[in-house]
Amino acid sequence: MNKKEKGSHGESIAQTYLLENGYEIVDTNVQLGQLEIDIIAQLNNLLVFVEVRLRHDNRYGFPEEGLSKTKIRAIQRAAEFYIQKIGWQEDIRIDLIAILEKPELSLEHFQDIC
Fold first, then answer.
1. Per-residue pLDDT tens digits for 11-30
2. Is 47 in contact with 83 (CB distance < 8 Å)?
3. CB burial class (10 A; 0-12, 13-18, 19+) of residue 44?
């Protein structure tokens, strides 16, 4: 599996999780210039920007450990640009979904990461 396929696989797992937990998927793989948002979901009047991190195993650390402060700031900028673009007036949140495939599939949802 190449990097793009791995990303799509992780995002598919995350979307299924979000749908099962009452979220509506608004958009995926949103490109805003140089910035990207993996998943935009909505839960009631809350718009949630979701970064997805997938690792095959934890040999090199857990998926959430790969999220840098620089990447978090980029997600914040992308979210700000997106809400201005669509005129969103309600609350927003930025989340991380960390997925580890081995030894068994596990998913951890970190809410409000910044």
1. 999 999 999 999 999 999 99
2. yes
3. exposed
